[in-house]
Specification:
With 282 residues, the chain is of the alpha/beta class. Helix content is 29%, strand content 20%. The termini are close together.
Length: 282
């Protein structure tokens, strides 16, 4: 598939959830950009060409007041970029409706995370169904959930509940600092039933290895933090490698070509699903 330029922007660190399996350290789940920083980010995105997908993450984007007050309106008014967001769907439905209205005609993907520790499944499904009705028909709503050990039966029930209202579940294996969680034999069997023998990156996030494959991360894809620091991908950021500079101080510089992946895990399905990894189809 052709590459679809994408930046994953962590718009804030603050999150209103505290999931036991979150791989982001608590010390990073705080803070948000200043007004001056937001001006700088919008200036950067205004100059970024051609049209990119700006996938906004957190923390929880909707927990930051500036998300709907400044960021989304600014991207719509000042740029031609497509808008995506990763959210835990905790925002009230009227706030989600406002987001859908603001992004009309520009919305690409809403990735809604289902966290069993914090929500009632029925209420979550109802809100997701309502959001789907509010969104652009051509935009995609993806419901993702981390496959927590010993919770496979609950994940299967959630998939059935979502499918009953025309939505689909995107399972994600549990990541650890060292890679992927080592599920026991019973969970591994249930996981195969849940995702199939060889799921594509569009069906599930299995955190595969693309070691040695040519990847355009750092060139047509990069990760951006709330402080303006840019990294070629999530794994490079974890290992403090692949720094691309800072978009707020003018030191940012993208790569101009693909390079061979040197990591044994790709924890995020976005690069593969946006055509960044040569020879890998979603």
């Amino acid at each position: 598939m052709s590459r679809r330029p994408t930046v994953e922007w962590q718009v804030c660190g603050v999150c209103n959830y505290d999931c036991s399996y979150c791989i982001q350290s608590k010390k990073y789940r705080t803070g948000h950009p200043t007004e001056a920083d937001l001006d700088g980010f919008l200036d950067f995105f205004s100059a970024l060409t051609p049209s990119w997908e700006i996938k906004m993450t957190g923390g929880e984007p909707f927990a930051f007041r500036g998300f709907l007050a400044r960021i989304v309106p600014g991207l719509i008014e000042l740029t031609s970029h497509r808008i995506s967001v990763l959210t835990n769907l905790s925002a009230p439905i009227d706030v989600l409706e406002r987001f859908a209205q603001l992004t009309r005609g520009r919305l690409e993907i809403v990735s809604a995370s289902l966290h069993f520790e914090h929500v009632d499944l029925g209420e979550f499904v109802d809100k997701a169904r309502r959001l789907r009705e509010l969104m652009d028909p051509e935009a995609r709503l993806v419901i993702n959930t981390v496959v927590v050990p010993s919770e496979l039966d609950r994940v299967a029930r959630a998939r059935a509940a979502l499918e009953a209202v025309g939505l689909h579940l995107f399972p994600q294996v549990l990541k650890t600092k060292g890679g992927v969680f080592d599920y026991d034999a019973d969970d591994r069997l249930k996981l195969r039933v849940l995702v199939g023998e060889a799921p594509t990156s569009r069906a599930a996030n299995m955190a595969p290895s693309h070691l040695g494959k040519r990847c355009w991360a750092g060139a047509d894809y990069f990760v951006l933090t709330q402080r303006g620091d840019a990294w070629s991908c999530r794994t490079s950021k974890r290992f403090s490698e692949g720094a691309l500079g800072n978009v707020l101080d003018g030191s940012f510089q993208r790569r101009t070509a693909a390079s061979e992946c040197s990591y044994v895990i790709c924890p995020c399905a976005v690069p593969a699903n946006r055509g960044m990894i040569e020879g890998v189809s979603p």
